[in-house]
Amino acid sequence: GFLVIALYILRGLFLFFMRQTIILMSRHIEFDMKNDIYQHYQKLSLGFYRRNNTGDLMNRATEDVNRVRMYVGPAIMYTINTFVLSVLIIWSMFDVNSKLAIYCLLPLPFLVVIIYYVNTLIFKKSGKIQERLSSLSTFVQERLSGIRIIKSYVREDYTRSMFEIQSNDYKKDSMSLVKVSALFYPTMLLLIGLSTILTIYVGGVQVMNGSITAGNIAEFIIYINQLTFPVTMLGWVTSLIQRAAASQKRINEFLDIPSDIQSTNDNTREINGNISFKNVSFTYPDTGIEALKDVSFEIKNGEFVAIIGKTGSGKSTLANLIMRMYDVQSGAINIDGENLKDLNLKDYRSKIGFVPQEVFLFSDTIKNNIAFGLDTVTDDEVYEAAKNASVYNNIIDFEERFETMLGERGITLSGGQKQRVSIARALIKSPRILIFDDCLSAVDTKTEEE
Length: 450
Hints:
The protein is an alpha+beta fold.
């Protein structure tokens, strides 16, 4: 009795340390994978983000990574546990009576065939479910971002019906996977039941022949019941592995995409701000729209240049090309006489102040939004930048002043205030090149002059 208790305590200790080791390892792998994915996302060009939805990107970095973690954690742990337990049980069965053990294990080949068939189904259905989940995430993210438009046009009912359609599509695909699993587990238990029946029948014949005792049959039934857990876990682990394989395939699809913008120069240099376009042509690769064709001009250091044109004439494209968000297909852009492609990209962009046409502010304090482009900054520098952008007086009217928390995309501020905070964010860097992309559209004439 003491030996049995000691063995169970030892088994519990080993299981505890195994869980601690494998589950902890899976969490570290999850952490590293999310960091790698996020780091890779940041290296990719704007073209990548034009082609892919935010919801899909988020889903691959969260839900898909979690599926992979379930494989490298619980799946591996239970696979080891199942394998060791099954080997010990089968060895004990053959040690008692080889003939009876063979009959007990006769359903095993059928189980292998079923697992192979179910694996294929689960892999296909899991990939489809993850695609549906990405679409659903994208839909929700877009609608929540545009909630003001939805309310303004009284489209709540329409949006709700569209969400129900998306949810139903996801539910149908999920239910199809559940049905496969629902058939899988009872089938495995049926095979266990067949093993029990064969054990009783064949064992009964052998008892009548005097080959074994009734106690041996009871022993075999206990062994079969102990095999129930490994067989059940086998089905669950099979599902985890196939879901993880489908998710890892989705993750690799993006991780294998190289960045369109490559920068191999690690040297830093001073930028004076002389910009030269020489016969530059550019066509957006995702849409095929020709934005620029054989454009040439020069901007000298210290000059103020205004580029005027109708909507869609390529003004924003020029700004993106100067910052090297895209590479030109033909021609060359030179900065201080050196080809833009040969410059250290991070160092070059750090010397540019850019105010986009569509202002984006983070869900943070006004102070942190203004100081976003710098690692270290003083309060006086933030105040000075706000004054230069003519937004200081507006900010000090708030109760929390520069510590005022902004809502998502700066929703707390008016359109003009958001634009001026964005301008302050560019000015605080004291950039060598300053680019304004129609950033005063929501500012009144008096403030614009200031």
